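hiii, so i know i said id send this last week but things got crazy w the move. better late than never?? heres the sequnce for the chain we talked about at the cafe, plus the structure i predicted for it. fair warning i was half asleep when i ran it
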Amino acid sequence: MAEPRDTRAGAGRIRVAQWGTGNAGSVALGAILDDPGLELVALWVARSSSASRDASELAIRRAGTGAVGVAATTDPTAVLAARPDCVVYMATDRDRAEEVVDDLATILAAGINVVATTMPMLVHPDGAGPVVRARLAAACASGNSSFLCTGIEPGFTADALVLTLSSLSREITRVYVQEAMNVGSYRVPRWRSGLGNNIHQDATLYREGHIARGWTGVLTLLADGLGVTLEEIREVRRVAAAGRVFEVPAGRYGPDDVAALNFQVIGVVGGEPRLVVDHTYRLLDEVAPDWPQPLAPDRRTTRIRISGVPDIDVTLELGGAGLDPTDQGVLGTAMRAVHAIPAVVAAPAGMRTSLDLPVIVGRHAMAP
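okay and structure toks below
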């Protein structure tokens, strides 16, 4: 068992290690470097070409410049040896879910708290199934450490924000969360959701139920927070092709490639579809025009409808600062994780959710 350490009193700066420097990781790294309450002590990278580079060279920063004296490494043991109070884990889970769980268990058992955006089904401890929950819970107990999975979606708009809004309700009959955005600038040629697949081969290329599994954590968290029993999770999915050749930053696609995706993940409560997450992703704005649309093409739009007494309707729109909808989501995901660090370090040991942490706020985010 790891020797207990007093990392929860909040004295001085919190020692942080960044794990991964992809789209969100490089933004999170910059935010850690620019936050006066945090101290970067280690940086793990996946590519050997990035090893030994100063962290500042791999970070997207708001204000700071110049070398910071922390060299990137591909050696996980070097990160653990730096004894951070918290690891911000953002390595990809694509085709390496078991490796991610191994990493998380090792870090937590070493007595290091973790804020993760990887494997977003872990926004609830039950999201990845009982085997993963048992392993990570045991690692937290062994290391006296805390774990939180968060982000913008999952991690905020469809779960934490909805549950906060529910505090205004006397009676809730249905929760419906709809998101629409253009993802053409996200450099993933073929999505696990099916975007980019040949529409005639999609039935064999897409693994049925994959999307629903990814949203199990969100629906479980909603049901947990609302005090209801989640009986079943269903998936409804539609795809549409562009009908022409087109090219976007994500790649070049043919006329029969999936250019728009709409899915609903439905939580059944009391035999009825009471919890619904509805997403529409497009590589081209004009495809499937009758499906849900963002408020503007350059905006990431989320609409929340809580039906009941009273009805609650909230529209969340991200934009500005030259950010496209993908950039907006990446930034929101990274900042949600970084701002969660103090709450996770201060929390009792165990797997945590937004239900048992204080409100996460943008401390130090207000520009001078």
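btw Residues 1-10 have pLDDT under 50 and may be disordered. thought thatd interest u
miss u guys!!
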